[in-house]
Give the backbone structure.
Amino acid sequence: MIVIWGGKMIVLIETERLRLAPVAAADVDLLLDLWSDPGLVNVLEGSESLSRGRVEQIVYESGEAHQASCYGLWVASLILDDMSLSASGFVIAVVIFTVLTAVLQPLITKMAVQNAPALQGSSALVTTFLSLLITELVSDGLTIDGLSTWIFATVIVWFFTMIAAWLLPMFLLKEARENKQ
């Protein structure tokens, strides 16, 4: 379902037991409570709870990650013949992919650090592959066929998402400065 929220059009996926929507500044207190839980802190961040400033930073970065994922998936679908994003399912596929990446990245990185430090650098690629795989399985918006397409899709989505995540803040900051003047 697409709704207007905070003056922006966003995707909201809602079932009896789940509500999936982008994180917003209004969610900081809820996330601060959640990420202060000792069991969750041990899994995601180590042994320290998160400060309010870190939670606010995560919320801000999640918006950037969502935009960067859009570019990564879109570019890969343009380059690879056996990868397609449907127009109707694109936004839902991007939301699912972004949420999966945000959840899987800290877990995979921590597993690599603890069990195979030499593989720590590849954790982003593993996260991208798993996020693509799960998104393709649960969404009608993304289709990837063939082993070589899976490999190239993983690398292309990872690369262009990384580039977009690096470049978007520079353009957003420039736009914000221009709007102030």
User: Anything to note?
Assistant: The two ends are 37 Å apart (CA to CA).
